[in-house]
Give the backbone structure.
Amino acid sequence: MPYINNLSNWQVWSPWEKLDPSIEFTVAKPSAGVGAHLFWQSKWGMGEMTITSISRSSTKFNILFNNEHIVTGALTFTQEQNKTLVSCELNGEVTTPIIGGYLALFSQYILNNTVALGLNNLRTTLQLHIKNSEN
């Protein structure tokens, strides 16, 4: 949970900086818990994210892209034997006329791949953390 509910820790596992070297993040106060807020700016645009709720089974958040596209998201935690499965769901709407459908498909493709990479990075980060804690 500290790697997800504290936005200062997202840079440890988030793939965005490797995918877009121009991106710059600013973590606002509070950096953790409900109301935690993160801003970013890159050559592709800007955005902000706010954690809106936290429970044992999920962390929910809102994202605003370029001051016009709102996305809601959730990282969901499911206990399975001695493991925790983490999944991510993003929901939003593309409001660009005519090319909006193509933009939505392209955005979905990029986000799906980036989210999968991020969840993989999160798993690796936690495995290394556990291994280092045992030594």
User: Anything to note?
Assistant: The first strand starts at residue 24 and ends at 27. The chain has a mean pLDDT of 83. The radius of gyration is 16 Å. Helices lie at 2-5, 10-13, 16-19, 100-134.
